[in-house]
Specification:
Length: about 180
């Protein structure tokens, strides 16, 4: 019930107009502070927020790439990326719900800007920007998961990171392979 109250309070104070990632982190931090939970648990909550936001961005760019990519290889990687990322996001959402943590409902401001820049491109420039974004997001994701697989306070989060990390590494490798194929 406190989660519902937090969501209601956040919406009524204009919190919903802010960056979704900031909003989720703010709500989680407020709940954790009120419950006198440790800083390590706050780090776990921030990890879940950031991991979910990266998954949402990967889904967004992969859906755009399936429609706009110039290369069949890029469309293929985008299709596989969407197929592997959606279940990872659902698993994150389920765990966050069990832990009574709030996840972002949309892309953050910087992520939205990156997606907008990608969408504005066509042809080979689009494919190159897609693979660059894919590489940076999957690299950041894999590093965060690798850290949290050992350092998360919560055992369920450690287990989740251990399950998802091999998939993230495969996604990153697919991006690197695509990068090599797109080189002139």
């Amino acid at each position: 019930m406190p989660l519902l109250l937090l969501l209601t309070a956040a919406c009524s104070t204009g919190e919903s107009n802010k960056d979704p990632i900031f909003s989720a982190k703010f709500q989680n931090e407020k709940r954790i502070d009120e419950e006198a939970v440790t800083k390590r648990q706050l780090r776990d909550a921030e990890f879940l927020v950031d991991a979910a936001s990266r998954k949402m961005q990967l889904l967004e760019i992969s859906q755009i790439a399936q429609r706009k990519a110039a290369s069949a290889d890029t469309r293929f990687v985008a299709q596989n990326l969407a197929a592997t990322t959606a279940p990872l996001l659902r698993e994150l959402q389920t765990l966050a719900q069990q832990k009574k943590l709030v996840l972002p409902t949309g892309l953050g401001e910087e992520q939205g800007k990156q997606v907008g820049e990608l969408t504005a491109l066509n042809g080979a420039a689009f494919d190159q920007k897609f693979v660059d974004l894919l590489g940076s997001i999957t690299n950041e994701d894999a590093e965060a998961y690798d850290d949290m697989s050992e350092e998360a306070y919560d055992g369920d989060i450690r287990a989740l990171t251990a399950r998802q990390l091999p998939i993230l590494k495969d996604q990153h490798t697919a991006g690197e392979t695509l990068q090599d194929k797109l080189k002139p």
